Structure formats: structure tokens, C-alpha cells
Amino acid sequence: MENKNVERQQKKYKYMTALGAGGYQEFVYEYCGVRNENATRFVQAAMLEILRKKEIVVDEFIVLLTERSRNETWEKTIIRQSNSIKERLKKKNPELFKSVESELEYDDCWKDTKEYDGLKAVLENLGGITLTVIDISDGKSIDEQWDIYQKISNEIVSREGEVNLIFDITNGFRTIPMLAVSALDCIRRIENVNVEYIFYGAMEAKSDDKIVPVFDFTMLLDVMEWSQALRMFQDYGISEPLCEIARNGIEESKNSKTGDLKNISESDTWKELIGAIDTFSKTIETGRGKYDKTRSNKENCIALAALEVVRTIDIVIDMEFEKENVLENTLLIPLIPILEQIRVSMQEFVKEDNFEIGLQIIKWCRDKKKVQQGLTALEETVTTYVCKLLNDLGVGVDEVNKNDRMDIVNKAVTGILHNRKDTRNKLKYSEEKYERFTKVKGELKKIVDEQKHKNKELTLMGLVDKIKKLRNDINHFGFSSKSNQCNDIIEEFERCSLDFEKLVCTYESEKRE
After folding, report:
1. Residue 42: partners with Cβ closer than 8 Å, 6 or more residues away
2. Which of 292 and 219 is assigned the larger pLDDT?
3. Domain for residue 41, yes or no?
4. Which of 14, 126, 465, 501 maximizes the CB count within 10 A of its CB?
5. Total domain count for the chain?
6. Do 305 and 424 fall into the same domain?
7. Whether residue 229 sits in one domain with residue 110
8. Average pLDDT of 386-413?
9. Does 156 lie in the same domain as 122?
10. How far apart are CA 75 and CA 119, in angstroms?
11. Residue 63 forms beta bridges with which residues?
12. Which residues contact 465 (CB under 8 A, 6 or more apart)?
């Protein structure tokens, strides 16, 4: 922690802010227990003083100005007295007002406005800082709003070398904070830009003795970063962004009481969760669909990897709600709804039935556009379902046993599909194994013949044929003789997977009848 604070102190920072045209009142500001000495109308001047006390060096001040804020807040400060003596007298006694107006014209208490030093003069008096002005529009239209966004972005990315940025969102047009946070979220992905602080002077939270707290909302960018990464996993099944954030150690917001940096990626529980999500993603990518009670673990079985994600999400959520200090869990609280969605989707995989697990993997891959993994899952789950059908018919086959699955069931399916005569000598099976093979093939042939008899358009063998051709095409890297277009492969995978689900529903319905 000490090293991080030293590193921050050695950097030089750019302080960017916007000014409004309102006449600001004088306050003392406080950030992380440090206050500026004298009351000031400008939170920016107060923060520069506070940062110097904390040995944080700001070498440039960048201000966004409309024409009005330049004239009424930057060059000089104009305070409009809505309840001046002049206004009150004009309303209560118009005749007396006329008789004294010319005599009191230059008296301060008579004027509608008062003038003070603008922020420019205040900063120049502080010294040791370069002032940069960016003229912006009033933001009264979408085009003007985008122009402001572009100017914020361009000003930062145009700098050479590393840019360590502080953005103050206290003042300016009400949409400035939203535009700024959006722009900062984009530009901080540029290698040389570091968004270190986002300050907000909370006048609405001032104390009775007029001390205004300054909050650091840098955590808003962290929440966006984490939520985007979690959403990438939930929507597309991609875990790499989460792992990258964890590796880079994205910092949580500064604790408003101590100023110490928090880092949720350093939490053992959070690391465990990210690791579990990454493992689940890898088990999908590498097709670890098989569940075997005696041999499976979370790194070679999708169902057990999903169970680990559920377990760690439960721990993280329970841990966050048990914390007494709200400041400690500000970053994770907005992420909990996404975590709960991920938990629900992971729970669908937590099964001990290979067929049910396979169906869920097919659906996941279809939804996430993972075609190659989905085709592998589809072909293998069809085989698992054939094993299930055979067991329902009293033909005992073990779906997780390689000999039963590959040598008996798969070869029987291929033999029927290609109308092939599989002799014992050709297969090189023992008498016992060949007897089992013949029985399996005979039972499957009955299912095929029954479908032909019912004249069904959607048949098991027809679907198997499509899936095998499709998987063969995609696994040969486009070098097969009948190579399909990419979009055709995606659409055909989706059709085949939905047809399989439909076929299963039909079979199960007929079986109940």
C-alpha cells in the first residue's frame, strides 16, 4: 500500500473540470480528512490546495468553458443578488424607488450583482500550474453534447507521453458528469491514459459548519469495467476480460475516510470466483462435457466447474451483505444483480445426468454462438441420448464407457446410417462383444423402421447424418470437398440443435402415451 502511495506522489497530474455560470458560495472542502485553509467559492482551488498537502502534484489545469461561464465565473465571478435592496424597494415602494435610484446607483448593496475574482485569478495566485482553456457550447442539443464529448476526448488523447488524469465533475452543465464518465471509460483504454480520480464536491452533503465533503467516484469506472466483463461472460461465454481485469488489479474506489486504495482483485474469495468462471469457460471451450461420479473434477467436467461458480458466487454475495462498513463493498454491490444472473445460468448445468448436461451445453453454445463447441456437444449428446433410448428398451449400455459408447453404439449408428454390413471379422470383435453390437444395432434399426413407417420428416438418423457432415466440415478447416459458407454453418447448427430438442420432446411424449 505504501509503495502505491509513493508512486502516486511521484506522478504529475492533469486536473480537468468544467465551470458553470452560477455564483458559487464560499465553503471549506474536505477530502480524506484533509481540508483547505480558507473558504473559497471554487472546489477546484480547494482541491488543488488539498492535493498539495497530500504531496500530489498537479502541473496543468484544464477547464471547459462556455461563453457565459468564461465571463461570469472564469475571468471574474458575478454573484446575482436576487433579493437585493433595489429589488425589494422597487416592489414595495415604487415612488420612493424612483426618488433614490440615481443617488444609490453605485452603492454595492443597491446593485443587482457583485463581482469577485474569477477562478482564473484564484489559480494564478496559487501559482506553479499551467492553465489550459477549452471553449465548449452550452450543450443545448444532441449535436452540442457530442461536440463536448469529442472535445473532452481529443484534449486528453492528443497529449504525448503518459497522462495521469483527475476529472472534477462538481460544476458545469448537468450532463457534463455523464459525458465525462462515458468519455473517460473509453479513453482510459488507451495505453498512456490513467484516470486516477473523479472528484465531486457534494454541496448537498455539507455539514452544519459549512464543510463540504469531496467524494471520489473513480469507482464508477471500475463498476463499468467489471460489469462489462461479467456481461461478456454472461452474454458470450467469454471469461478473458474478467481475468485480464483481475490480473491488472483494477483498483476499487478510495475509502472516503482513509484514502487507502482498495483492490477487490486482491480478495481471496473474489480471486476464487474469477478462477471458477475462467475454469468453466475453459471446460466449455475444450468440450469437457462428460460427468463421471468416480473420475470427474471441476477442471475436466463442465457440470462440476459450474457448481464451483455457483458456490463461489454464493460466498461472495453472502460476504458482501455481511459487511458492516458500506464503504468496503461499494464496488461489488452494483455487480450483485449480474452475479445472480450468472448464478442462475450456472445452476442449469449442475446435474449428474450426462444427457441433461449435454442439452444445457448445446443451448449455451447456441446462445453464445460457440458453433464448434456446440457441434461437438450436439453430436456427443445425440450418442448419449441413443444410449438412453437403448437402456429404456432394456439393452444395457454404459454411456461413459468408451467400449460401449464408441465401439458398440457409435458404430451401430454409423452402420445403419450407411446401410453397412458389419461382420464380426470386419469389426474384429470378440464373440461376446459382437453379440452385444448386433443386439444394439437391431434395436436401433427398429426405431429407424418405426420412424419410416410413421413417415416422420424429422428422424434420428436424418439428424445424425446432418450433424456428422456439419461437424466434419467445420473440423477440416474449410478443406473438405463440400465446404459451406460460415453463416450457413451457424444457421445449420442452430437448426440441428433445435431439431434435436424437438425430436427428444416428441420421443418422450410418445413414450408416456
Report:
1. 24, 119, 122
2. 292
3. yes
4. 14
5. 4
6. no
7. no
8. 90
9. yes
10. 7
11. 17, 133
12. 417
User: Which residues are CB-neighbours of 8 under 8 A, at least 6 positions away?
Assistant: 56, 196
User: Do residues 284 and 377 both lie within one domain?
Assistant: no
Half-sphere exposure at residue 236, Cβ-oriented, CA atoms within 13 angstroms: 10
Among the three residues 171, 189, 216, which one is the final residue of a domain in this structure?
216
Domain that holds residue 197: 7-75+118-216
Residue 365 lies in a domain: no
Both 207 and 234 in one domain: the answer is: no
Which of 216, 242, 271 is the endpoint of a domain?
216
Select from 387, 386, 363, 385 the least CA-distant residue to 374.
363
- Which 8-state DSSP code applies to residue 335? G
Grid cell for residue 249: 488489479
- Band (pLDDT 50/70/90 cuts) for residue 182 is confident
pLDDT (mean) for 395-418? 90
pLDDT of residue 252: 42
pLDDT attached to residue 114: 63
**E runs forming strands in 81-238:** 113-117, 130-135, 163-168, 193-201, 211-216
The answer to the question of residue 454 being in a domain is yes
Q: Are residues 69 and 161 in the same domain?
A: yes
Contact 113, 81 (CB under 8 A): yes
Local structure of 357: helix, strand or coil = helix
CA-nearest of 139, 343, 370, 88 to 230 is: 343
For residue 388, the Cα-to-chain-centroid distance in whole angstroms is 40
Q: Could you give the CA distance from residue 368 to residue 63 in angstroms, rounded to a whole number? A: 44
pLDDT at 89: 62
397 vs 293: CA distance, rounded Å: 17
On whether both 496 and 431 belong to a single domain, the answer is yes
Going by their DSSP bridges, the two strands 113-117 and 163-168 should be labelled as unpaired
238 and 317 in a single domain? The answer is yes
Is 363 a member of any domain?
no
pLDDT tens for each residue of 98-140: 666 655 554 555 455 567 788 999 999 888 899 999 999 988 8
Q: Across 128-244, where does the E strand assignment appear?
A: 130-135, 163-168, 193-201, 211-216
Indicate the range of 195-199, 200-204, 256-260, 348-352 predicted with least confidence.
256-260
Which amino acid is it at 321?
Answer: F
DSSP state of 206: -
- Could you tell me if 19 and 65 are in contact, meaning their C-beta atoms sit under 8 angstroms apart? yes
CA–CA distance from 23 to each of 116, 117, 241 (Å)? 10, 11, 45
Set of cell numbers at residue 114: 457583485
C-alpha cell at 288: 469437457
Answer yes or no: is pLDDT of 326 > 60. no
Residues present in the chain in total: 513
